[in-house]
Design a protein that fits this description.
heterodimer; A: 388 residues; alpha/beta; Fumarate Reductase Iron-sulfur Protein, Chain B, domain 2; Rossmann fold; 19 helices; globular; B: 441 residues; FAD/NAD(P)-binding domain; 7-stranded mixed beta sheet; 10 helices; 24% helix
Chain lengths: 388, 441
């Protein structure tokens, strides 16, 4: 990409994200989860370089790929600079200049997403459906299952229960008398591509999904994965401003059902759990109370909050399956210690990737006794399913 | 000549009341809490002269109590204002104190026997000291009259307090009156001065600084009480759990202020009071390291810059330009770590501190909207009282005859508040003069 084009793009981004308002106080840098592990990283300095007009240097810098886009910095910036969006925008610029990130697992998930941009693709992604589960091709409610069928194949070794949450979602909806749309025509939501600056792939996936969702006649789309939820509620509208079908996180939907008396949590689940808010769900969107309200209503269940919870939640250490390294591992282990310290027997999470990362972090050699992080990580919905 | 109503018994309200009383005007000084004195009474020292705050204020408070032209209405709130400049009728709600002010000498024998003694967090010391249901707000309280917390008092809430009411029995003068009722009075006044000051921003919502979770994270106002000789620790700064004085202290500026998510404005006094507070630490414990984390130092009053330089050069206070992102605690030792971006290297750095003091924003009081409605005056976009013209009439509210003084108008320090109070008093006096009539001699 020509230098002046990069410059132009950068100027637009500075304006859009309020980067010019940065007063260089360094609050973002000092609360960033990465900087404590990797002191050479500084979100603010990326912006400073940009403000100084060093567009090409910024686009070529390793730092823009290190960021987790967890939005802790944006959430706390006294001058409301949207660093997260700034980084994402810079990634798009960098991509156009031929710089791409290194993806974990050989970029397999990314390649799959690329394959899914083919319009006439025949996917075999419903093999996990069990006997007795009722799903349909058309209907009022659509369950966006996300990548769990694929994650199950790729990461099955690390987490053999990736699909449990997806299955639980179907079971819960069936118990509520709902036959959700679950279809082989669903594509990857494109979240990872969007956050890795691959706008082209993201837009292709978004268009295919929007087309498919519209074709099912669904009035409400239910998402379980926080990343899919973020893409469906905040980013698809950038591709198709007319995409206005209601999208709810399943916790929001189930809360409504609970209030209407349709969802009845009657069976005892006698254990103590803790809950990990994904950054997309809690900070990007702000769904914090609903999962807690649901857990509160489960008979016999005790909820123990971690030191950092809700929109203050610590991160899982990896974003868009891009940057898995020692820094990620340290962040994950720290979070697991927090979870273990609550005394809970299990940590619940909606995000399948968070769960995989946490489970992965516990394997291998640890610099401390395994007991400190020895806590099981399971899908949120499995607990709810047991209570109905 | 008509009377004047002054709302708020802090230093600004006191000054306005005294100015007018000296001119022969009768003043009704209305204060929401049981004692006048306001925030200045809670401070240890004042900047940049390091004078004892209460030592300067207490004589003025006493002057108010003694002045024949000043009528104090404590535990009172203004509920409405009818009429026009020169001829207002103010409705004042006087909450029952349940103690007869004409009989009580403030001896405190009742407080000694209260069944709730030492159980209720004391407002004046931000809960660092505990009081009973009957109490004197603080040592130098004016009026020196005991007060019963009607929300906590066992007799008033349950209708029975053990075998007998111990406080009533202890009072030699029969001053305790459980039958006292709230009353509403109407005051005929010619002008009104509003001087309601500020509230303190509660930093417990700022998870990153750990206030409320970590014992050794304090607000600046708590620190003022802790370092004050008449405070809960007798002026000894104690670190939990060792009770030793801190070896290292960090002051974090602009907590909740100059933050577009919270209060966008600068509170104007925090740079200077933090400098003062750090100097106080150094005067108490010369070996204690003090670091002030600031966004930028705003030292723009007379002698202020010189004071900051003295703090830096003579006392060895360290000033660092950074907004820390996080305070963490070692759960075993309760020692704190402050994480910040080193302004020189741009890298995340940390320092250990035994105590962290948060310069929390001073924000418009919780009741300003209600008061503005009652008085028929307007607030500005930050919820400070709006003046008619910020350049040419900086003490006039949007309603003729109602004047504004002190922090409730816009952030300012003590001398500025006092000056504005005198200005408001002078303008109020003009209103009375225009209407004519003889002054109270």
């Amino acid at each position: 990409m020509a230098a002046d084009e990069a410059k132009q793009k950068l100027d637009g981004l500075i304006k859009k994200t309020g980067a010019f308002d940065c007063v260089e106080c360094g609050k973002c840098t000092s609360l960033c989860p990465i900087t404590k592990e990797d002191p050479n990283f500084a979100p603010r300095l990326i912006v400073v370089k940009a403000l100084e007009g060093m567009a090409e240097q910024v686009a070529g810098a390793r730092d823009i790929w290190v960021c987790l886009t967890c939005a802790r910095c944006s959430a706390k910036c006294p001058y409301k600079v949207n660093y997260t969006e700034f980084i994402r925008g810079m990634r798009e610029t960098a991509r156009k200049g031929g710089v791409a990130p290194a993806c974990s697992e050989g970029g397999l998930m990314n390649s799959l997403a690329g394959l899914m941009t083919k319009p006439d693709l025949g996917q075999n992604r419903l093999g996990w459906l069990e006997e007795g589960m009722k799903v349909a091709e058309k209907g009022q409610y659509l369950l966006f299952t996300g990548c769990t069928p694929y994650l199950n194949v790729i990461f099955g070794e690390k987490d053999d229960r990736v699909l449990e949450g997806t299955k639980a979602a179907v079971r819960i909806l069936n118990k509520l008398g709902i036959t959700p749309v679950v279809s082989a025509d669903e594509r990857c939501c494109g979240h990872d591509q969007y956050w890795a600056g691959d706008r082209e792939t993201f837009e292709k996936l978004a268009r295919l999904n929007i087309e498919w969702i519209k074709s099912t006649g669904a009035k409400t789309v239910l998402a379980t994965c926080p990343e899919c939820f973020r893409a469906l509620t905040k980013d698809y509208q950038k591709v198709d401003p007319d995409f206005d079908i209601e999208v709810l996180h399943i916790s929001e939907f189930l809360c409504d059902q609970l209030e209407d008396g349709k969802l009845k949590l009657t069976k005892e689940v006698p254990e103590t759990v803790t809950y990990h808010d994904g950054c997309r769900l809690a900070r990007h969107i702000g769904v914090v109370d609903e999962p807690r309200m649901l857990l509160e209503k489960v008979p016999g269940l005790k909820m123990a909050e971690m030191e950092s919870a809700g929109d203050e939640s610590a991160c899982c250490g990896v974003s868009a399956l891009m940057n898995c390294d020692n820094t990620s591992k340290s962040i994950q282990l720290r979070r697991l210690k927090e979870a273990k310290a609550t005394g809970a027997s299990r940590m619940l999470a909606f995000c399948p990737k968070c769960r995989i990362h946490f489970k992965c972090a516990r394997t291998g050699n640890l610099p401390f006794p395994k007991e400190e992080v020895d806590i099981d990580v399971v899908d949120f919905l499995t607990v709810l399913d047991r209570a109905i | 000549m008509k009377d004047v109503l002054v709302i708020g018994g802090g230093v600004a309200g006191i000054q306005a009341a005294l100015d007018l009383a000296e001119k022969g005007v009768k003043v009704h000084l209305v204060e929401r809490t049981p004692s006048i004195g306001g925030r200045m009474a809670q401070l240890d020292k004042t900047f940049p002269t390091m004078d004892c705050s209460i030592c300067i204020l207490a004589p003025k408070m006493a002057d108010c109590a003694d002045h024949p032209n000043i009528i104090m209405h404590t535990c009172s709130e203004v509920a409405g204002l009818q009429g026009e400049a020169g001829d207002f009728r103010a409705t004042v709600l006087k909450h029952a104190r349940h103690v007869d002010a004409s009989k009580c000498t403030g001896c405190g024998k009742c407080a000694e026997v209260c069944r709730l003694k030492g159980r209720i967090p004391n407002e004046f010391d931000f809960g660092l000291r505990k009081r009973g249901a009957i109490y004197l707000p603080f040592l130098q309280a004016v009026p020196r009259v005991m007060n019963i917390d009607s929300k906590k008092c066992i007799f008033l809430t349950k209708g029975k307090c053990g075998e007998k009411q111990l406080c009533k029995e202890a009072c030699e003068r029969g001053a305790i009156d459980f039958d006292q009722k709230d009353e509403t009075v109407t005051l005929d006044v010619g002008a009104v001065i509003v001087a309601t000051g500020f509230d303190l921003f509660d930093p417990s919502g700022m998870f990153e600084y750990g206030y409320g979770r970590f014992q050794n994270v304090r607000t600046a106002m708590e620190y003022e009480r802790l370092i004050c000789a008449s405070g809960p620790t007798g002026g000894h700064l104690e670190v939990e759990p060792t009770k030793e004085h801190p070896g290292s202290m960090a002051f974090i500026q602009c907590v909740g202020a100059r933050d577009l998510r919270l209060s966008p404005f600068c509170c104007s006094v925090c740079c200077m009071y933090a400098t003062k507070e750090a100097v106080l630490v150094k005067e108490h414990y010369p070996d204690t390291d003090c670091t002030i984390f600031n966004v930028d130092m705003r030292a723009l009053g007379k002698g202020f810059e010189e004071f900051v330089e003295r703090a830096r050069d003579e006392y060895g206070v360290r000033f660092l330009r950074a907004r820390p992102g996080q305070v963490t605690e070692d759960p075993a030792t309760k020692r704190l770590t402050v994480w910040y971006e080193d302004p020189a290297s741009g890298k995340v750095t940390s320092m250990e501190a035994d105590m962290v003091v948060l310069a929390t924003a001073l924000v418009p009081g919780a009741g300003v909207a209600q008061l503005a409605k009652a008085l028929g005056i307007e607030l500005d976009e930050s919820a400070f009282f709006k003046v008619r013209d910020p350049l040419m009439s900086p003490v006039e509210s949007t309603r003729p005859g109602v004047f504004i003084a002190g922090y409730c108008e816009t952030p300012k320090d003590i001398p500025e508040s006092v000056a504005q109070a005198s200005g408001a008093a002078a303008r109020a006096f003009e209103v009375l003069k225009r209407k004519g009539g003889a002054a109270h001699a």
